[in-house]
Each structure stands twice: as structure tokens, then as C-alpha cells.
Amino acid sequence: MKALLIRDIRLAMRAGGGFGLALGFFLIVAVLVPFAVGPHGDLLSAIGPGVLWVGAMLACLLSLDRIFQLDFEDGSLALLATSPIPAEAMVMAKATAHWLTTGLPLVALSPVLAVFFNAAPGAYLWLPVSLLIGTPALSMIGAFGAALTVGLKRGGLLLSLLVLPLYVPTLIFGAELARRGAEGAAVQTPLLLLTGISLASFAALPFAAGLVLRVNLR
Amino acid sequence: MITVRNLCVGRGGVALLRSVEFTADSGQMLVLRGPNGVGKTTLLRSLAGLQPAWEGEIAVDPEDIVYAGHQDGIKAQLSVSENLRFWAEVFGFGPIDAALERFGLMALADRPGGALSAGQKRRLGLARLAVSGRRIWLLDEPTVSLDSDSTARFGDIIRAHLKDGGVVIAATHIDLGIEGSVLDLGRWRVTGEDQSGDPFLTEGAF
């Protein structure tokens, strides 16, 4: 499992691996929105957490189809399925690698982007914290969607349609946590719910995705 | 080491082979023969556990099996040794140098997978068998794109594996010069009007 995790991270970092793609997308969204909205500081700081959360979600979506599709196309996925790594552990390793190369850089970049939105002081802490807790769920839910659509030609659009509705709870509580944190309100409720979503998806979805992968490889 | 009883396998909802029976013991090679589409790949995929059998039983320890299909699963961005080391780590088996040497990949060790020729890729794909440490090799057309030298070399490697007590089940039309029993799949073929084994059509499939 560790070998697979390291291989996936290495592949993502090498040329054509897509590392930086999500990050660049996130950056562009965060720069474009203030241009479109105009110089209204109060408005920007009000919409900032929500826009950045939507941006992070779309950036994450961008690289989802790489999780399994490339391995499916070159035959690695079938070989991995006959290897000692259980399908569930394979999903866990691949979702973790996806998070480390997509979600974590977004977390690190988010305080910088908060500047563009004239963010309240609280946002510089709570926006990264909300992304840190929430993006693992985005990667795992996305891995489940990618497992469902693996093997479909041009399954990327279907993948988005399947995954985006599943992202709604994460988005609601993630953006709410960032917003309340920025305003200095009580954060406990969204914090606990967001943590719960992330933990639950890591606990349950590897099994669902593993099952789906085995069916798709038949 | 592997026993198959009354096996029925199919692909795309069509039954291909029925009542397949064979046994392979330690040190034995089985060569699967039959015309295109008879079900060689389907049988091998079923033995590897990639698709379920429709009927019957495959008595084998899944921990013994390693499968090599049409595709080698080579990552273009990783070097030859990185590719092979990954599989060695996945299977938890020893160092890769011996395998690189045996498959004539030593000089290519640092070359990226994307820069290999078809035959070199295939050799790297087959080297995975050697680092898997598994005893039953399931090979689907292993000699495709290999030149005659490499084919002979691979024949030697199979011979050594059999001598170590391994089992090789291969679908191939090329004579590797190895004593092995030939399984003609034609006799188990499901004929046109008798393809009713579709699990989606039988009642109680779910």
C-alpha cells in the first residue's frame, strides 16, 4: 500500500502528472472572481469563503478521472487487482495520494488567496482549517466516483455529474465553518459535522469503491 | 497446485467454455490452445480472479497466482527500475537486480518506461513475474512482440521456474521448447445454440 502511495505521488509530480493543474485552476478562479465582482470590499469578504470553497471543489474535480483511468488504460489496474493489495487498500492509497497532491497544496495556498477577497482576520486561520478537514472527503468521494466511471470512454463528464451532488454536504459545512470562523462566530457545529463527513467517507467509501472497481474490471 | 472442476466461463454475457476440467501440479506447464475467441483470455482472467466463474470451482490459493495479460502496466514517466521496484514492493519480494539481469534489462534500467520499444516493454512486463515470488504464472500471449532471442531466453526462464516447482499456464501459439501438456480448449467450447449460461438471464442471479 505504501509502495502504491509513493508511486502515485511520484507519478503526479513527474511531467504530465497533473500536479499543479488543480492549484493553477484554484488560483485563476480566486483571481477572476474579485475582477468580476469589482472593488466592493465588504461584498468580497462576505462571499470569499464560499467562492474559495467552490473553487477548491472544482479544482479537485479536475484531476479525479486520473485516479484510476490511467492505470486502467495501461493495464496496471488489472495487475494491481491480482496483486496482494486488496482493492479497498488500493482505493485508500490512491485517494490519499490524490489528496496529498491536490487537496493539501490547496490548503497551503488558500490563506494567500484569501487576501484577494479582503478576508476578515479570522478567515486566515479558519479557511485553511476548513479545507484541511474537508478536502480529504472531496478526494475520497471523488475516488468512489472515479471507480464508478473507470473504463468508460470520456467518462469525465459523467464523473462530474455523479460526484458534484455528493460534494454538497462537504461544501455546505466546509464553507459554513470558514464563514463562521471569519466572522468570529461559534464554529463547533460545522467543525464537528465536517470532521464527521471526512471520517465517514474514509471509513466507508473504500469498501464501496473497491467493490465497484472489481465489478468494472470484469 | 491448481485444480479446475466443471468450470463455466463467459465474456460479455455469452458463455464461452463449459465443463472445463484440468489439474496442474508443481513443475508442470499447461499450454492453452484454440482458435481466436475460443476463451483463452477469459479462462486465464477467471483463474486470476479478475472475473467470477459462472459455474464450477477453481481450487487454488489466490496468494500463489500472478497474472500477465495483454497489457504490461508500465508507467511511461517511471524508469525501468522504478517500474519493476514498484511491483517488487507490492508483492513484498526481494531485490530486482537479478530479474533485470535475467530479462536483459540491466542496460535499460534508467531509461523511462515511455522510451522503450514494444519488445522491451514486454520484457519489463514479464520481469514482474520474477519479482512477484509467486508460484503459478498465468500468461496470456507472453511472447507477443518478443524477438527470437528474447523468446528463447524467456523459455529458459520458464524452464527454471518449473524446475523450482512452479506452475505455468500459458495461452500461446509459439513453441517455447518446453515439455508441457497442451489443453485444446475447443472441446469445451459452447456452441452457438447453447449459450444460455448468461447470469443476467437466469433467475435468481441476484
| Record field, number of beta strands of chain A | 0
Q: What gyration radius of chain A follows from the Cα positions, in whole Å?
A: 18 Å
Spatial arrangement of strands, main beta sheet of chain B? 5-6-7-3-8
Largest sheet of chain A: none
Binned, the helix content of chain B reads 25-40%
Unreliable runs of chain B: none
Notes on the structure:
The complex is a heterodimer of chains A (218) and B (206). Chain A is mainly alpha-helical and 218 residues long. Chain A has helices spanning 2-13, 21-37, 41-62, 66-73, 76-81, 87-114, 123-149, 156-183, 188-217. By secondary structure, chain B is an alpha/beta fold. Chain B is built from five helices and eight strands; from the N terminus they run βββαββαααβαββ. Chain B has helices spanning 40-47, 80-90, 97-102, 118-132, 148-163; strands at residues 2-11, 14-24, 29-33, 55-59, 65-68, 136-140, 167-171, 181-184. In chain B, helix 2 packs parallel to helix 4 (118-132). In chain B, 41% of the residues are buried.
Defining key terms:
heterodimer; A: 218 residues; mainly alpha; 9 helices; 0% strand; elongated; B: 206 residues; alpha/beta; five-stranded parallel sheet; three-stranded antiparallel sheet; 5 helices; 8 strands; 27% helix
